[in-house]
């Protein structure tokens, strides 16, 4: 068993599940979307991105691209969340929360593509 592959798979799956946990629920209800879960999703996605930098294969490049997309979406969601809470006089409105959750949904799609790539890569691996 390759420990590096286990750690890589762990962070790819954890990134997807944390993102899903934040995403699920009524899109406009901030009570159903925990800010700490969003923060954890951002951090774990960034860790997964760093782990993808060493792979020089074509599938590794696509893995990195999906991870960068997820990072961009989640960081954008966190910035909108922070702006709504700490800067905006309107606060966290249902429309703003919908935007945050939508950005998280885009990241979730990128994470799901990454998980599918991981499964395809694992299934197509030939022992020599």
Can you give a write-up of this model?
- It is a single chain.
- The protein is mainly alpha-helical and 128 residues long.
- It has one domain.
- The protein has helices at residues 3-23, 35-52, 58-86, 94-123.
- The longest helix has 30 residues, at 94-123.
- It is elongated and about 60 Å long.
- The mean pLDDT is 93.
- The chain crosses the membrane at residues 7-24, 36-54, 61-86, 98-120.
- Keywords: Membrane, Transmembrane, Transmembrane helix.
- InterPro entries: DUF6394.
Question: Can you describe this structure in just a few lines?
Answer:
This protein is mainly α and 128 residues long. The chain contains four helices and no strands. InterPro entries: DUF6394 (IPR045655).
Domain count: 1
Q: What Rg do the Cα atoms give?
A: 16 Å
Task: Assign an overall shape.
Answer: elongated
Average residue pLDDT: 93
Total helical elements: 4
How would you spell out the order of helices and strands?
HHHH
Distance between the termini: 14 Å
Task: Output the structural class.
Answer: mainly alpha
Tally of DSSP β-strands: 0
The helical percent reads over 70%
Structural topology:
Elements: H1 3-23, H2 35-52, H3 58-86, H4 94-123
Helix pairs in contact: 1-2, 1-4, 2-3, 3-4
């Amino acid at each position: 068993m390759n420990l590096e592959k286990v750690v890589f798979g762990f962070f790819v799956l954890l990134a997807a599940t944390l993102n899903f946990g934040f995403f699920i629920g009524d899109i406009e209800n901030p009570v159903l979307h925990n800010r700490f879960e969003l923060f954890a999703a951002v951090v774990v996605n960034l860790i997964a991105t760093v782990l993808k930098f060493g792979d020089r294969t074509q599938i590794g490049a696509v893995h990195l691209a999906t991870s960068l997309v997820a990072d961009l979406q989640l960081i954008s969601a966190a910035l909108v969340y922070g702006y709504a809470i700490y800067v905006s006089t309107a606060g966290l409105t249902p429309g703003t929360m919908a935007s945050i959750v939508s950005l998280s949904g885009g990241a979730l799609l990128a994470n799901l593509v990454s998980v599918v790539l991981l499964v395809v890569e694992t299934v197509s691996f030939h022992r020599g």
